[in-house]
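User: Please run a holo structure prediction.
Assistant: Happy to. Please share the sequence and the ligand.
User: Here you go; the ligand is pyridoxine-5'-phosphate.
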Amino acid sequence: MKRLHVNIDHCATIRQARGTSYPDPVWAAAQAELAGAHGITAHLREDRRHIQDRDMRLLRQTVRTVLNMEMAATEEMIALALELKPEIVTLVPERREERTTEGGLDLKATGLGKAVERLKSRGIIVSLFIDPDTALMNSASEIGADMIELHTGDYCEASSPGARDLQLDRLTAAAAAAEESGLRVAAGHGLDYPNVVPVAAIPQVEELNIGHAIIARAIFSGLDLAVRDMLALIDGE
Ligand code: PXP
């Protein structure tokens, strides 16, 4: 069964836009779990533009499934992750000026291996968010990652069916290479109801991290139905 991890950052984005205490991403996480989500993903950014420290701490106390903390490999974030012990840490690149995470990690960045080692020493599963290039998979494994999350942005933004097929081939080849390197495979970024099925069908992809599309649909259908509809798609029903 493919697992759905619901990214709740976008609920926090709405809250931060007005500086209110609602909508609360911690409530969103509980409701996503009640609807059948297999995990909750939240990205604590250095600039705290959406998820706040308070959210991450409460999520750690309340999430009943799996908490996937997305973060940059900075000393501040590593210290927090070592304290909170989410089940998974996904290391992502971060640039202040970007609207959202725009590219995969630079695996040559200094200190990445050390960060992975420190997180793993606390029993945390470490995933690296990387571009779907077969050549990167061996490096991800050598760095010590347990998992990689394939960046699906190029696939989702492809401007024609032909271009999309090419990007799907890239994802498929990268997932196979990851498996050969002993890595577990997740995927995410930009996935939506109309484009998720071919990615979920890649055999090695066991987990999907999806946020924007689910929270956007929830405005109209409610979060419960938005999560259930996505679960039905990724599980091939
Ligand atoms: N995976 C990673 C590593 C991300 O940075 C994001 C965006 O926060 C997502 C998945 C989810 O992307 P989206 O909100 O487009 O579904």
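Residues 7, 9, 43, 70, 90, 92, 100-101, 129, 149, 188-191, 209-213 surround pyridoxine-5'-phosphate (CB under 6 Å).
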